[in-house]
């Protein structure tokens, strides 16, 4: 008779041994295993809530893959994709580029924990986590590759992290530190606890549901299939955090504070923009702010209290930025859309009325930006994006590498700091604080403007975009409708000849 599951489970997932001819410090050096460094015996009680066995894992994953293959066959082609709202399709490009290879970086983080995590159960779960993240890399690469022939911007699913577009510089700055370079303790707090427990829900459940609403079943199924894995390996975070709080509460609080802010900026850019600007208005079930309040604010506060930690010291700044930051980022990105790999839309009167209702404390100050952009489009010819495009050089944060647009249009929250004879500029106090905790980690990094000044990147804008950022005229971002909207009155001489707003653009016709 075969053994019952509980009789062999611990033998399979939690076997450890003592070393006789090497010291434990040599097998698990502090640099790669993480600090505070504890004897293995002190980790022996470590355990994760769902204890998945390898055979359960393989069966579960095979079923998920099969379901996804069916969806791909039915809905994966360009013919199906062409029916989707254009704004939404561009939100998918933003998602695909920023996540696909970040998931691959997460393979590295999980594998390091699979070797250097301090408890055997932790190592076993991290091994399954690494397999998960390989899958999360391959799914978007496979599903969206079919679309490259239709629209070359989808090529950025693979290309993005290898490029020098400013969003990629920012994403790499975070992803390299969080997923590739961190030790298993920092990875468990930063990735498993902060990033994967709360924030990924915003994108992989919240945005996925909006995608389903918008008619994109493929995106919905792809994202939710991935999220079912996240829930399993995210569980590594809490038991590591609890151990860390007991041994070194200060370090636990520091890692939470640092990674909460960095994760927040990442998701504000990716999810905030996709939810409040690139999801068709009639399909929106809630604002980004409402999703954040539901899935981050309450849940995160409760979990922190339960392990005996405080809210991050900058909590008031975080709460304030929920009303502003992703709006400021979208306005900046739209104004410099040729510097990114996806197209953007101009929010019309209905969208702006919706945004005013959802963001009553900030929208009055943000609305004039869009009024001005609309006025400039009405004086420009359709499709002539550079007449409605920023030309002044923008500044970037020395920590997060995003545009310096924290705060409000009237009051920018940028702050400076002198270090090693160099002046650093930060978008916000939390970014400066993170830099000051470990300056040796960040001091040598150059942002895009500094690379131009150092002669590493061309100063001419077109050369910068084509030779340094990897974009070209077909792929750089444009207004998705060429500035032609039913509500926008055109005052140019050939305005009468403007195509209707639903004319295909961004498809094969427009991107030969
Ligand atoms: Fe993942
Ligand atoms: Fe993950
Ligand atoms: Zn910053």
What does the model show?
The protein is an all-alpha fold. It is built from 22 helices and two strands. It has helices at 5-13, 24-27, 30-33, 54-75, 78-81, 86-116, 120-145, 156-159, 166-180, 184-213, 217-234, 237-247, 249-276, 288-307, 315-321, 325-335, 349-358, 363-378, 429-437, 439-442, 448-453, 461-468; strands at residues 415-419, 422-426. Strands 1-2 form a two-stranded antiparallel sheet. The longest helix has 31 residues, at 86-116. The structure holds fe (ii) ion (FE2) (2 copies) and zinc ion.
Mean pLDDT figure: 93
Question: Gap between N and C termini, in Å?
Answer: 65 Å
* Order of secondary-structure elements: HHHHHHHHHHHHHHHHHHEEHHHH
Shape: globular
Number of helical regions: 22
Bound molecules: fe (ii) ion, zinc ion
Widest sheet: strand order?
1-2
Alpha-carbon Rg, integer: 24 Å
Q: Helix proportion of residues, in percent?
A: 55-70%
Portion in beta strands: under 5%
Q: What structural class results from the helix and strand content? A: mainly alpha
Biggest β-sheet strands, sense, barrel:
2 strands, antiparallel
* pLDDT < 50 stretches: 499-512
**Overall strand count:** 2
């Amino acid at each position: 008779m075969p053994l019952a599951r509980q009789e062999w489970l611990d033998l399979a997932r939690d076997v450890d041994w003592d070393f006789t001819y090497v010291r434990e410090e040599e097998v698990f050096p502090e640099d790669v295993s993480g600090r505070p460094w504890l004897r293995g015996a002190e980790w022996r009680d470590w355990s994760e809530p769902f204890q998945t066995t390898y055979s359960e894992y393989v069966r579960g994953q095979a079923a998920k893959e099969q379901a996804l293959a069916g969806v791909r066959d039915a809905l994966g082609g360009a013919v199906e994709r062409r029916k989707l709202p254009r704004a939404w399709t561009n939100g998918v490009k933003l998602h695909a580029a920023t996540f696909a290879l970040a998931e691959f970086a997460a393979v590295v983080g999980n594998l390091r924990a699979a070797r250097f995590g301090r408890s055997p159960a932790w190592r076993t779960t991290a091994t399954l986590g690494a397999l998960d993240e390989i899958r999360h890399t391959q799914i978007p690469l496979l599903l969206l590759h079919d679309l490259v022939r239709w629209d070359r911007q989808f090529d950025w699913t693979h290309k993005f992290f290898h490029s020098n577009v400013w969003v990629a510089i920012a994403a790499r700055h975070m992803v390299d530190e969080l997923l590739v370079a961190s030790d298993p303790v920092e990875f468990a707090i930063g990735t498993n606890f902060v990033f994967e427990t709360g924030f990924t829900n915003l994108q992989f459940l919240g945005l996925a549901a909006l995608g389903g609403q918008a008619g994109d079943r493929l995106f919905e199924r792809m994202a939710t299939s991935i999220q079912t894995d996240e829930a399993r390996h995210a569980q590594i975070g809490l038991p590591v955090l609890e151990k860390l709080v007991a041994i070194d509460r200060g370090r636990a609080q520091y890692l939470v504070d640092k990674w909460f802010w960095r994760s927040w900026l990442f998701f504000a850019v990716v999810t905030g923009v996709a939810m409040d600007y690139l999801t068709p208005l009639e399909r929106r079930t809630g604002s980004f702010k409402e999703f954040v309040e539901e899935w981050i604010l309450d849940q995160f506060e409760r979990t922190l209290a339960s392990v005996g930690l405080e809210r991050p010291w900058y909590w008031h700044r975080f709460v304030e930025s929920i009303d502003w930051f992703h709006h400021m980022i979208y306005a900046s990105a739209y104004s410099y859309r040729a510097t990114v790999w996806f197209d953007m839309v101009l929010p019309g009167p209905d969208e702006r009325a919706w945004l005013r209702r959802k963001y009553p404390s900030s929208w009055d100050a943000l609305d004039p930006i869009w009024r001005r952009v609309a006025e400039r489009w009405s004086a420009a010819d359709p499709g002539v994006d550079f007449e409605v495009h920023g030309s002044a050089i923008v500044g970037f944060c020395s920590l997060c590498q995003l545009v310096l647009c924290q705060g409000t249009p009237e009051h920018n929250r940028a702050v400076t700091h002198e270090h090693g004879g160099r002046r650093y500029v930060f978008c916000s106090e939390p970014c400066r604080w993170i830099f000051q905790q470990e300056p040796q980690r960040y001091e040598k990094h150059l942002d895009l403007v500094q690379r131009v000044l150092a002669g590493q990147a061309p100063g001419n804008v077109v050369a910068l975009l084509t030779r340094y950022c990897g974009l070209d005229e077909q792929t750089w971002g444009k207004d998705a409708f060429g500035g032609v909207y039913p509500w926008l009155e055109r005052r140019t001489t050939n305005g009468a000849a403007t195509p209707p707003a639903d004319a295909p653009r961004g498809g094969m016709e427009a991107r030969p």
